[in-house]
Amino acid sequence: MSATHAPDTTTASATQEPPQLNRAISRNLLLLFVIGDVVGGGIYTLVGDIGAEVGGVVWLPMLMALALALFTAASYAELVTKYPQAAGAALYVNKAFRRPFMTFLVAFAVMCSGIASAATLARGVSGKYLPQLWTETPIVPIALVFLILVAALNFRGISESVKVNVVLTLVELGGLVLVMVVGVAALADGQGDLGRAFTFDGHSGGLVGAALAGTALAFYALIGFEDSVNVAEETKDPGRDYPRALFGGILVAGVIYLVIGVLAPAVLDRETLLDVDNGTPLISLATTGPLGVDAKLFAVIGILALANGALINMIMASRLVYGMSVQGIVPRLFSAVHRTRRTPWAAILFTSALAMALASTGEVSDLASTTVVLLLSVFSFVNVSVLVLRRDRVDHPHFQPGTAIPVIGAAASIGLLLYRVVDAPEELWRAAALLALGVVLWFVNRGVLGRDAPMDTAQLEAIETADPGEPPRRDA
After folding, report:
1. Domain count along the chain
2. Residues 354-364: pLDDT tens digits?
3. Which residue from 65, 299, 329, 387 has the fewest beta carbons nearer than 10 Å?
């Protein structure tokens, strides 16, 4: 190419390329983002349910869930540093398999996991924490009102939602630190028995079966790290910073959970630990010993922590539906944006209605299991995608663990998923119903667009970055 043509080509290229996201997130900020994403409502709601499976060794399922999370996180770290676009599971599955329907189902499963998680947290508020403030609280109506309030804040605007999220993240982290300090002080004061934390007196099927059942619940408390892929493109040095922040954030959350998993059964007697119908062990733990606080105070902290998790999940779910609608993957009616608030009101209504339906049909542990089943399905695909994409070379250095890591991650995800199918098939109908709804939406939309309508898989890669303020990027 001659020198006289070079300026024109550069100018044309510059005008044609879409603007890039600002790389403004440092490693420390990313670490805080991951910690805030992982630390959430699960630990506030499920300690007693895990104890019901394994008795005193609450920490064991948490340790197993932490290991599973780290294996899958390694796969995400490889994929994010290899393809540092602001996307997620849909991008990786699409690059690996190039099957639009498969990619859509993975994206829809991610969306449904957010909805199921929000429903879980709504039941946690109405059934576990609000009764500490008012004794007579109808569980389902309160859960529905809670989800309506979350939807209202989601509709209000993303800026307001993010600001609220920052405050609530600090509150929920402070609540867990408070629990640990109070629990350690109680043990030091002679209350409880540390030996109870190493006594298995749970599931009649034995320790292995009990630990697996408990892990399926404990894993719910560690999910959220996968959402951090959506800010990878805004990280200053993704190849170096993202893996360190990802593993660091998971480990910080994991250590907090393990400490609480030891303290709860050590300080509390078995009856209090398992009394999930009349509260949560974290409230009992926070009110015990010389540094114990008032139950109403910790109940407020718990409600704010669960509200934060529900808000994050509903923002993610509504934006996914909006993005799929804008791309023509699901019916266009979900792409409606409010003129003044510039939020995807139709998608918010749709996802909120699904969350309310779920919150009306199950207990906290049931809905948490639904969330875990959906995400284990997604993680299985992600871990396999790593292996498939090893043949795809890129021109920049990236994180790459040994081949055994994604193999173990895939095997563990698939194995735990199959265990849930065999051990508690009655808990799977919600996940199956949600995915069936996705299939219906897919084929209804195909019927409207025409059987031979082109379905560009590049569009599917952009669905997790959809912004109601502007069309989703199509260059992922």
Report:
1. 1
2. 999 999 998 88
3. 387
